[in-house]
Structure formats: C-alpha cells, structure tokens
Amino acid sequence: MSRKIAPGCFSTMAWKKHFFKETCCQCGAPDTETQNEELEKRGKVRKRKKKNENKRVIISNLPFGSKKWKENPNRHYDTNEIETTKYNILTFLPKNIYEQFHRFANIYFVFIALLNFVPVVHAFQPEVSVIPICVIMAITAIKDAWEDFRRYKLDKEINHMGCYIYSREEHAYVEKCWKDVRVGDFVQLQCNEIVPADILLLYSSDQNGICHLETANLDGETNLKQRRVVTGFSSQDTVFEPEFFQNTIICEMPNNDLNKFKGYMEQPDHEQVGLNIENLLLRGCTIRNTEAAAGIVIYAGHETKAMLNNSGPRYKRSRIEQRMNRDIFLCVGLLFVMCLVGAVGHGIWTGKFWEHPPYDVPDWNGNFVAPILAGFFMFLTMIILLQILIPISLYVSIEFVKLGQVFLIHNDIDLYDEEADLPIQCRALTITEDLGQIQYIFSDKTGTLTENKMVFRRCIVDGIEFSHQENDRRLRTQKALEVDHEDFTKLHHFTLPAVGRAAGGGHGSARPLRRCQSERGRAGGRAGGGRLGGQAPVAFSSPIEKDVTPDSRLLRQVREAALQTESFSPFIHMKTSTSFTDFFLALAICNSVLVSTATAPRQRVTIPPPIKPSGITLEKIHQIFQRLKLASLSQSFSSSQSSSQLGASFSAKNTEEPLAVLESCDNENDSSASSGGQELQDKGSTEIGTASLDEVFRSATNTSLPTDFCYEAESPDEAALVYAAQAYGFILVSRTPEQVTVQLPQGTLLTFDILYTLGFDSVRKRMSVVVRHPLTKEIVVYTKGADSVIMDLLDNSTKGDISSDKRLKRIKERTQKHLDYYAHDGLRTLCIAKKVLNEDDFQKWANFRREAEAAIDNREELLIETAQHLETKLTLLGATGIEDRLQDGVPDTIVSLREAGIKVWVLTGDKQETAVNIAYSCKLLNQRDTVFTINTENKETCESLLNLTLEEVKKTYEYDKPQRKFFGIIPTSVSAPEAPSPEFGLVIDGRTLNIIFQGGLEEKFLALARRCRSVLCCRSTPLQKSMVVKLVRRQLKAMTLSIGDGANDVSMIQAANVGIGISGQEGMQAVMASDFAISRFKHLKKLLLVHGHWCYARLAKMVIYFFYKNVCYVNLLFWYQFFCGFSGSTMIDYWQMIFFNLFFTSVPPLLFGALDRDVSAEMLLRLPELYKNGQNSEIYNLSTFIITMLDAFYQSLICFFVPYLMYKDSDIDVFSFGNPINTIALLTILLHQALEMKTWTVLQLVVMICSVAFYLIFSVIYNAACLLCSPPTNPYWIMERQLKDPIFYLLCLITPVIALLPRFFIFALRGTLGASLVLKAQQIEKLPKEQQDLEIQKLRSRKEATSGAPVASSASNDDLDQSISCLCVSPFLPSAAALSPRDTENQGVSASNLGRRTQDEGYYFFNRWAEEESAATDSSAGHSSGHQPLVASRETAPGQDGGKLTKDYLKNFNYGSHRRSVSSVTL
Q1: What is the pLDDT of residues 783-837, one digit of tens each?
Q2: Structure pTM?
Q3: Is the dihedral angle over the CA atoms 118, 119, 124, 128 positive or is it negative?
C-alpha cells in the first residue's frame, strides 16, 4: 500500500528526532460518495448502542466525509489529542487559587488580610497586610505554572508526532498528526514506529499474520510480544484494502486493563468473529520485526489503555506533615487564647476610666462603643496583630527543602547502578522524610531479593538426578563471568566441540549480544549508557544465564538417545531413550521464544538456515550401535538405581576431575550408586563406545549451523530452559506459528508442525504445545508447569503391565523426592511431561477448542476448560531446578535493617520451601530461631493454631513499650515500638491468609506477627500482598515500606506509606507505581539508614524551628500589649515585621533543612541502631513541640524584658524601644539555629552572616529614607542613632546569651548524664579510627548483654542441641518406640531424645529450627543429613471439631518431610 505525505506535515525523520512544528496540517477527511446500503446498515448502530450501553460499536470512517461527519456514529468518541495539563491561560488564575485554598493556612491568612480592611479592627495598613500572603501564593503559583508548562510542551510533542492514515480521496495512506487520528480510522505502521492509538490488527506483512511489539514504553519489558491478525484476515493473499472493510466491531468500553480485551467483529453476513488482547496493538508500543502492519482504531486519546493507566504518582502525606497540621491547630488555639487575653485586658483597661480618654473617638452620633463590643473588636485586632504565630512560609519552605533533599539523594553515587546505567529515581517529592521512620518492610522475593537471572542448575530425567557438578563449579568460581569470559568460552568449546559451538556460538559469543534495531529511549529500563550505539542487550541473555556446562553422565545418555531417535535402534531401552530425547525436545519446543541471529538480534528467524549434509549415514549409525550394544545396556539407569541414591548427587564429592571428562563420559562419580553389573563394566567396550560416539559427533561438527542464535523469551525461566537444551545439542533453530525447527546433537534438523499452543496462565500454572512429530507422525503434547500441578495430572491408571506401572510409580516417587530437595536447596522447580494423542481424540478436542475460540461470552473460561481437558493423563519426563541467584549485598542489607529496628516481611508467590531457604540464605531467618509454620484450610484449626502459638510466644516474649525520654536525657538505645523478638519467625501460606482475612482473624494474626522477627507469606496473590500491607499500616498505625520489581507487586507498593520499585528484569510497572525507584536491593540500606535518617532529622528540626521562631517573635508583640493598654499597637515597624520572616530569617532554615548532618554517613551505616531515632519520632513529637513552645515563651520574655528594664524610666520613643528588641530577637533566633546545627559549611556560615548584614543594611536605608511612613510615629533615623549607642551593643551581647542559656544547659546535661545513642555516635566520630572501632564494639557488646539477644556465632550440632529448648510432645503422639528406625532417622530425633520429653509439658509441640547440616558436611551435598522436624498436617475434615484430634487425624502426620525444619503447632 502506497504512502503519501500531505503538504505541510513533517517528515518521519523529523518526528524521530523529536523536532516538532508549532502547528500541524489540517488533513481533513475528504467528502466521499456514500452508498445507501451502507448507510442503512450503519443506521442500526444507534439502536444497538442504546441496548448495549456498556459496549462500544465501531464502524469505518471512510463512508463519512467532512460534510457527512455529523452522521458518523464514531464522532462521539474521544479524539487522539491528549491534554495532561491542569490549566490554560484563562483558567490558571482561578483554578490555581482554588487549589491553594485547599491548604488551611492559606485560607487563614487571606481571611486575616481581608479582615485588616475593616476600619474598626485593622491593625496595620490594609495594603501592606496582603503582601505576605500574595508573595507566598505567587511563589507557589509560579512553581505550578512551570510544571504545567512542561506538561504542555510534552503534550504538544506527542500530539504532533506523525502517523499514516488511509484517505479514500487519495487511495493511499497520508501522513497526519497523532492528534488527527479518530476512532474508525485505518492506520498503517512500519517497523520501529510507535503505535499512536489502540488499534485492532487487520493486516501484517508477516505471512503468518504475526506482528511483534516491544512494550518497553508501557511496562519497560524488553522482550517482544506477539500480536495476531484478526481471524479471517490473516489468510488474505492480497494487501489489505480499507475501502472494502464493511464489518462492524462491538467491544467493551474503555478500561485500564492492559492484559484483557473482549469483543467481536460482525461481518455483513452476520457471522461473528471473536476478538481478544492478542489482536490489539496498544498505544505507546513499538513495532518490531514486522515490515508493515495496518488496523482500525478502537480507542483514541485519553480512552486508550495506556492513558487510562497513566494516573500519575499518587499524592501521599508524610507523617511529619500530618503532625504539623495538628500542631498548627494547637497554634491556632494558642492564638485564640492570646487574643482572648488581649480582648479581656482591653475591656478591663477601658473600664478603669471614669471618663473616656482622648484617643477614644465617638461615632458620628456621639455614641461610644460599649466595653464588650470594644473587647470583641480588639479580639479581631489582636488576630491581625498576632497572625504570624502561624508560620505562613512553612509550607513553601518545606517544598524547597524537599527539592534539595531529592537532589542530594538523586546525585548520590552510591545509589547509582553502573551496570544498568540507572540512578535512583525520586518520583514522589512529598515523603522523603518518611524514609527515616519506616517500621515494617514488605519485600517481594523474585527479582527483589534475587537477581531474577535464572541459571540452570540441576535436572531429573526418568527418575535419575543429574547434579551438574561441573556447572556448579563454574558458577562458584566465576561469579563475574565477564571478567574471564573469553578464557571460559575457549574451555567450553574445547570440552564440547559440537554442542559448545551451538550453545556458545564461537568466539563472537564472548561479547554481550547487542540489539540492532531497538530505538527506544531511556524509559525502556536497562538501556545502558556507554554501550555500543546506546543499544541494550537482548533480555535474559547474560553469559551467566546462557552458558551451561553439561553433566557428563547426562550428556552420554542424551547422545545415545539422540542417535537412537533417528535410527530407531532396537538395542537401547526404548522408553528410557525416548524420555531423554523428549525431555530436551520439550525444553526447546514448549515455550514462546523467538529466534534471531547474533548479527541481527531482532531479525526473527522463520526459515532454518542452510546446513551442510551430514557425513554419516544411517547404516554407519547402525554399525556404531552394534559396537555400543553392551556398553549402552550396562550404562542404563532405568532400573538399577537403588533407593539409597536419593540425595546422592547432593552428597557427591566435588572431585576436581578435568572438564575433559565430558568427552570421555566417565561414570566415576556414579560408581557408588551403580549396580553390580555397572561395577563389572568392561573397560574395553567403554573405550570402543566412547570412540564411536566421538566419531559420530566429530562428523556432526561439520554439520553445525553457520550462525549463532539469540533468543527473545517472555520470562527468564523460558530462556534458561532453552539455553539448557542448547547446551545438550537440542538447538532451537527457527520458529513460526505453524512450525518449529530443532537441531539434534548429531546435526539433524527436525521440523515439528505446531498444531496448538496453550500459553501459561495463573489458573492452570502450566504451558503446553501440541505438535506433530516429524519422524513418528504422532501428535504429542509437551507440557511444563509447577510440580504441584503436574504431579496431579499424571496418568495413574493401571495398564495391565505390572512392571511398567511399578516403573512409572517409582519414577514419580523419585522425582518428587528430588523436587523436594531442590526446593529445600532454594531452586525453582518445573516438571516436564508429555502425552501422545491419536487422530480421533485430537480432532474432537480441536473442534471444542475452535468453538471456544469463536465464543463471545465466557471465552476465557472456555479456553481454560478446553486446555485443562487436554492436559490430563500425562507421562512424566523429568523436572528441572533453576537457581534464582541472590543479589549482592542482600544479607548484609537485611541484617543492617533489622539492627535498625525494622521488621522485614517477605510476601512472595513462590512455594514455601523455596522461600524459607532463600530466607535463610539472606539472613532473614537465623538457624537458632523458632519458626512457626501455619498451613491450614480450616477456620477453626487456624484460630486454634494462632491462639496456641500466641500463648507460647507470650511466655518467652514480653511486649514492653520503650521509655520516653524527658529533655532527651533518658538514653534512646531501647527498642523501637513493637520491636521484633530475636527468637521467633512465622511462615504462612496463601490459603491460610485467605482464611484469616475471611474469618475475621486479623487481630490474632497481627498479635502473633508483631512478636516475630520475620514473617514469610508464601503462595500469596497480589491482592493478598496489598491486604497484608494495609492491615499492618491501619491496625498497627505503623510506617510501612513495600519493595518489588514486577507487575504483581504494584498493589502492594501503592498500599504502603512508601513504595519502592526495582527496575529489574520484570519490566517497569512497579517503578511507574512507586515513590522511589532503585536498581538493587542493597541500595535500600543507604537510602533508609543514611538519607532517611538525614531527611527526617533535617525536616523535623526545621519544622519545629519554624514554630519556635514564629512563637518567639509574635510573643514580643504580645508582651508589649500589657504596656499599651491592649490597644493592638506595635513597637516594631510593620515593614520590618514583614521582612523579618520573608527575608531576614528565611534562608538559613532552608540550608539547615537541606544540608545539616547530625551524624556522618559512615557512622550511620556502622551503627544502624541510630535509625531508631526517626522510628520513635524523637525529634518531632508532642513533647518536643510543647518543650519548644515553652522555650520560645521564655526566650521572648528575656528578649522583651531585658531591654525594657534597661530603658525603663527613659524618654525614648516607641520605635527606639522596639528596634533593639527586633535586633535582639533576630540574633537570638539565628544563634538558636546555630546551636541546633551539627554540620557547618562555608555556605551556611556565609548565609548567617549575610542575614544579619542584610537586616542592618535594610534598616539603615529604610530608616534614613522613611520620613512619613507610619504617622504619627515614623522610624526615621532610628537605626543610625542606635548604632551609636553603647547600650544597644550591650543588649545585643548579653540578651541572646541569657535567652539561650537554658537550652545550652540542657544540651550539656544530655552529653554528661544520659547521652543518647546519637550523641554517643557524635562523640565517637571525633575519635581516631582505631579507637572508633573499639568504642563501636563496646556499644554493641553492651547492647547484646542488656537485651539478652543471642549472639550469632558458629556452633557445633552438639552445642546447638543443648541450647535448643525442649520439645513439648503432644500426649496424642505415638510413643518413641512406635516410630520405626527409618522414621527416627529421617527426623534426626532419636528415640531417647523423644523419651526424655515429658508429656505433661503441653498439648502442643514446637520444634526449634535446627542446623542445616553438620559443619563437616559440604554445603552442596549434605542437605539430607540435617535435623528434620516433626510436621503435622493441619487439614481437618469437614465438620470435624478444630479443637480436637482423633487417631485418624494423627495418621496425617508427615514424618518424612523434606523441609529443613518446620516449627509447627498441632492440636
């Protein structure tokens, strides 16, 4: 289809460079000839719309021109022009003033200014009184206008971007602006263009009707998504012609769900075609790997899904701001009392006169104002006079201070991730101080505590576990593969010439893969600065994820099975060989991975590249297998593996055999677990077999593909499995919607016909692909998914063959045990299964599937139902264990956070065993902790368990509130509110959480959880995560922080007081919903402990200083009223009063709030306990506020009465008396701040000096120029005379000293009698480096001694057993003698140990978490030797009383649990 650029529209190149013109051409739709039949058909649309108000009806705009536009039913829908600004030129002033009036202080000061215009009550010149509020509101308005202008510029750029819209008059696509797009227009897009609106895909240049999208601008995900052309349009042989489009589209109303879209297309013959999200191109996405695509606009402008999700950052009020609003009301009450005193005093004063004084002027009737009414007028006058008691500039000052704090946080080099080229993002400017008051942290696990870089570690095939010791050594010795990546690549290729070249890809793979066509900006996430061309690498393709060293035993099995697959040799056990082949074929096929080349990473490979013919024939293979017969049979693992092999791979010694063993395929590692026949294996046959296999694969080397491949996966798990299959020679070569090609280890290409792909969803928790095998022509279903799901779908029916049934049962049992060990080891597990269908069954199922796909109502439910119908009676092939590596610095960060008094909860969707082991790895749980695990589906049982556990916890943990210090003398080293116990942990699953929320057990759950040092919520849904956060935040009134990296963490992030997103591998949805965005979890340590502490301390001190400053200053006027008859007059010139707060004392507090540091960053990191200062709100709370107000009253008394006593009985005028008081007040207030400042910089010193100098210069100039400023008195030449008076200098010297002496005295007492931890840290900082370390150790040892907390230290198992508290054995438990030796061995608890426990110790039992393994046991091998717990099943039959246990209930006890240890409660 041709494109034409209309005159006046800018070029695409200009659009890409973001140079936009002021106006865009008006390319209106031309008038067209409409057919009567078309109009009649479209006339029915309005009636249908009335019936279906919740649906949208869309038709083509082509039949309607500009003259007929009023007849177009699409005209009611929004245009594509967006407008995110809040104001325009006409509405800015009234709208901004209205928004500023939402602040109580602004309303208050406007009211005071207007009240001053009333003649009977005015205290100052009315025009002058409006200056302060006008200045404050003007500053705020300028800031709002600048922010809105930036939004306007961005809107203008977006609205004037170019796109191609079909014109019927031109019979071609013409270029228009985005803002000219309308619902019903046809838009054509080319590769690398951005989608301007939500468009229904009707055409793609791809022959399979596929269009690839990059959604980085929406969610930050760098992997490609597939979109399909609407059914019926993908099979078109010619180019799509919009003029022939006669269909009507009925879809749902606009909504913000990015993952769902429902609707159908009605054709002229009334046939309906279903529509879903796979047919929709979302606004903001970028077209990739597709030359051209076209579609019709469904949603435009603000109705698009992207715009509906762009609600902007949620406004949050910090805790200091909430407390500040409360204190402002206290100041209002104080003001009311002071005005009431003035009004009463004025009434009493005037009542003492027998006749009216001369200054009391009657009204025009000669009547005098009554004393009561005069008192009321004086009350209003006093409000005007004392109005500055409320700090008018506080709000604006806080905004400036927070901007400075954000600037310092953003420019902290320690919070910058050099690898990802990402600094910290401060998306919320209003809650920086909340970072210093966090009490609870709720963290996701995957991608937050871990890397979300999935590394293939182990696998189970046909019940045999392959430990991949060589790969484990590689990962241990090369944490940073890029350092020595070139040498490793050479070694990798030397070891595996055929497989390595396919997996690693030659020497070119030593460099990270680059994206060649991605033109997205920094918004995409990890677009690394400093990379070549500024292009980001392909997602999930780091060397640590790609390079897998094969297991020698498995490699041998796979090679044999691959050759047998092609030759159908009868010499190898058919089922065993097929299991190995099918296992890796499933890994390579059962996914949605896109294949591209390393030279063009985003040019999709759809046709297998040419391959050299193999130099080996089938006859040659048969000859080789004749020679391999004995060796192959002797090495079969299908029936000889004994039960003692369970966990052998975990206890296998890490022998340092050379990597060349991969070629020799030595079975030395397996000798201890092999049968007798394997031990007597003929060495000569082995050598013959090895040489023969090498001959085969050396021949296959010459058939290697000419190029390397890189894979675009939707998840890191998929990429890890594909790279694992590649390492064993099963290389994914190309993929189309109809076919997928895989290269076998010997070089043969197999092309499978894809019949159906059943994608992963959270309901099924699995994915399946239905293919036709190219050799056997069988229809095979390959399925991968969670073990908890796949194991229940296996075929358990007996087939008459007893040996086969036993074999399958044994494979299932062994696989399950190994999966338990995998989970115990912290690995992510997936099961792989298959199913063979006959033609009849497949055709029946395919018919059901097509009906479900064509359904309009309940389409998703029907699709899930058909998928579940197919995925039954599966045959287990094996399982995989993938490691999600722990991020660097996570254990140290969590330890520091917990020392700071912060509770860390982990809310994850992973299985319980994996989460528990990750919790141990990251030091969230300690080996000495007693950990309670509660898993139940019964409300009564759950309630009983909570009660019993809580009762036990209360026995050993008494909840005490911390002491409140008075004048800061009591040390603050006590625990924070609700301090976590150092002994208990809680593990709970999603089902139990559901019961707690639905059964009203939240209070009991919180009562238990608040006494535990850590809580793990496993198998949690996103909704449950947010509910847990809200529960803690609302019920405990605690400051909460949520941190996550994925879309499933968004609700949790938004529910917390502070939300932090990690810009990781799961996209940017969490970042876009967060208040702060970091790239690594370890950055949380400095963000909270350093910047959080600083931000809270600075802002809290600044806020309370503002209150002090205003109260101290306004009290000077209040004391003067006792000497002027409460007349409302002042002894200070009003201009100087205005400038006092606006200029003279405004800048020093700003620098104080932005730059002051009470403790250095190094000391804050070394002593995390200092963070409790903010947790307990020790700087700014009600007591400190009251003390500060009392101090302000005292200082105002000194500043007023010392000059009063000095000038008593003198003849100076009013301003000559007030000028020294004003100067003394300025010096006292500035020196007060100097006492509070802990860090002095040159800038702060200069600002303090300049404030005093500016006051003196202004006073001199103003007093010299002001002849008749305030008649009948005026300040003319006042300052000049004062500067010549020695008494003035004496007052300025002694008065601030007397005023500040009590505060200085209290500071001295704090450091002498009972120094707080902050003061101790300040004292330690002044010591030499060596002495600092010694003092810090003394502080910590003293704290451990007083708290009684166990000190983390290594101990033997014997010492641990002695320190662990006794088990409380239930009287319902069977006696120790009743336990079999195997049971007691599995439990790690001897019969004598059980016999020592007395049954009268309780009706429940607890297990302490035991040591993971003996200190002498290797960490990679000894997981089966540690203490194992007694685990009680908590499921109660329906109708059974939750408070009782029967003998049948006790049968559910699982004595062979795979968990490291579970402290459980059973009834």
Answers
A1: 999 888 899 899 877 666 788 888 888 999 999 999 988 887 778 889 999 999 9
A2: 0.69
A3: positive
d(CA 461, CA 876): 9
The span from the CA of 180 to the CA of 314, in Å, is 31
3 state DSSP class of 446: coil
Return the C-alpha torsion angle 27, 30, 36, 39, nearest 10: 10
3-class secondary-structure state, position 593 = coil
Q: Choose among 701, 784, 778, 771: nearest CA to 741.
A: 771
Angle at CA of residue 836, ends 835 and 839, nearest 5° = 140
List residues bridging with 1243 in a β-sheet. none
Q: Is 791 in contact with 874 (CB distance < 8 Å)?
A: no
Residue 1362 and residue 1356: Cα distance in Å, rounded? 10
Please report how the helices 1147-1155 and 1093-1121 are oriented relative to each other, as an axis angle in degrees rounded to 10: 150
Distances (CA, A) of 742 to 205, 586, 728, 1125: 25, 11, 12, 100
Distance CA 1178, CA 957 (A): 25
Tokens of 594: 């896109």
Question: Residue 1284 carries which side chain, given as an amino acid letter?
Answer: K
In 178-253, the DSSP E strands lie at: 186-190, 198-204, 210-214, 224-228, 248-252
Segments of the chain with pLDDT less than 50: 5-52, 313, 480-536, 568-574, 612-693, 696-704, 706, 959-982, 1348-1467
In the annotation, is 787 catalytic?
A: no
Residue 1439 CB-density burial (10 A; 0-12 exposed, 13-18 middle, 19+ buried): exposed
CB 1075 within 8 A of CB 1041: no
User: Around 772, how many Cα atoms within 13 Å sit in the side-chain half-sphere?
Assistant: 10
Angle between helices 1329-1347 and 1317-1325 (to 10 degrees): 160
> How far apart are alpha carbons 1407 and 1465 in whole angstroms?
9
**Cis before 1272 (ω within 30):** yes
CA distance 614 to 621: 12
Q: For residue 421, what are its two tokens?
A: 């080229």
Which of 180, 206, 444, 1045 is catalytic? The answer is 444
Residue-level length of the chain: 1467
Instruction: Give the separation between CA 409 and CA 432, rounded to whole angstroms.
Output: 9
Backbone phi, psi, residue 408, to 5°? -65, -40
User: Cα dist. 213→199, 288, 858 in Å?
Assistant: 13, 6, 27
